[in-house]
Amino acid sequence: MLFSTSTQRKFWIFPSIDEVRNLRNEANSEFINKIGIKQLSEEEARYLLTPHQEYKLSLAYEYEIKKFCMSFPTPLPSFVIATSMIYFKRFFLHNSIMEYNPEDIMITCIFLACKVEEYYVSIQNFSSYCKLMPKEACEKIVRDNELLVMLKLHYHLTIYKPYKAVDGFLLDIRTRCKDVKFNFERVQKIALEFIDRSLHTDVFLLYSPSQIALAAVLHSVHREGHNLDEYVLTILLHDVPQETMTKVIEQIKKLRKLVKHQEKINRNEIADIEARLRAFKATTTWRSRNSQFDGDSQDSETCMD
């Protein structure tokens, strides 16, 4: 299957950052309506998270995904980490972090990514590598949530990533642009670092893997002191209409800007958000109504405590 005909292209690439934010706002509103805002006391309502607070907390957990994956005796490869993070992004694009325990979803996304990417790790080994909780608890989380995560992702599990395209662009540049001299390994490393940073933004919900790869390569080669405008305009886009060319160039600029200005994580702010979330989960209304929901019903310390 090609990216152009994939579920990723059809269902998970959105036309603007505003639409992505609107989806998060809707997920937040739907949960609040579901629990019944009128049923909450004034004290309970003050603990509800805003959409932006939910986003900041999910962003913090994306860093925890990477930390978890790197803690294995043999760290999980970048393509598994990327798939895990994209699953996590997609899950909380349509679901509230107030309803589903982010640590449980994080662990499940990582295990599911290992399976989908055919990087075999048994549930026994996976849970034994987990340093966040006892082995049996980790196994139970995966078993309880794996089908839920797949359902919420609409079983759209194949993720196209930009890693191979980066190497393709670099080889093409080295072949066609004889005047552009660079150290392949160093430029490749910088490009992969760019992709790594992009995983902590909404780039993978807005752009195709080839666009992300091109932006990464332009960034890395520019860092080495070269300008690739001629390559882009006269080789890559030489046979496309001017309007399309202008649109592509503008998209790449926006993509690079998103990565450059990625939102930073403030640990004190995250701690405050988590405290609010724990306080909400401790309210009488949540405890009395929790059995109605699909979300996690257990109070648990998070991996960032």
Automatic annotation (TrEMBL):
Protein name, UniProt field: Cyclin-H
GO cellular component: transcription factor TFIIK complex
UniProt GO BP: DNA-templated transcription; regulation of transcription by RNA polymerase II
Keywords: Cell cycle, Cyclin
InterPro entries: Cyclin-like_dom (IPR013763), Cyclin-like_sf (IPR036915), Cyclin/Ssn8 (IPR043198), Cyclin_C_2 (IPR031658), Cyclin_N (IPR006671), CyclinH/Ccl1 (IPR027081)
Entry superkingdom: Eukaryota
NCBIfam families per the UniProt record, alphabetical: ccl1 (TIGR00569)
General function of this protein: Regulates CDK7, the catalytic subunit of the CDK-activating kinase (CAK) enzymatic complex. CAK activates the cyclin-associated kinases CDK1, CDK2, CDK4 and CDK6 by threonine phosphorylation. CAK complexed to the core-TFIIH basal transcription factor activates RNA polymerase II by serine phosphorylation of the repetitive C-terminal domain (CTD) of its large subunit (POLR2A), allowing its escape from the promoter and elongation of the transcripts. Involved in cell cycle control and in RNA transcription by RNA polymerase II. Its expression and activity are constant throughout the cell cycle.
GO molecular function: cyclin-dependent protein serine/threonine kinase regulator activity
Assembly and binders: Associates primarily with CDK7 and MAT1 to form the CAK complex. CAK can further associate with the core-TFIIH to form the TFIIH basal transcription factor.
Pfam families: Cyclin_C_2 (PF16899), Cyclin_N (PF00134)
Organism of provenance: Dimorphilus gyrociliatus
Organism placement in taxonomy: Eukaryota, Metazoa, Spiralia, Lophotrochozoa, Annelida
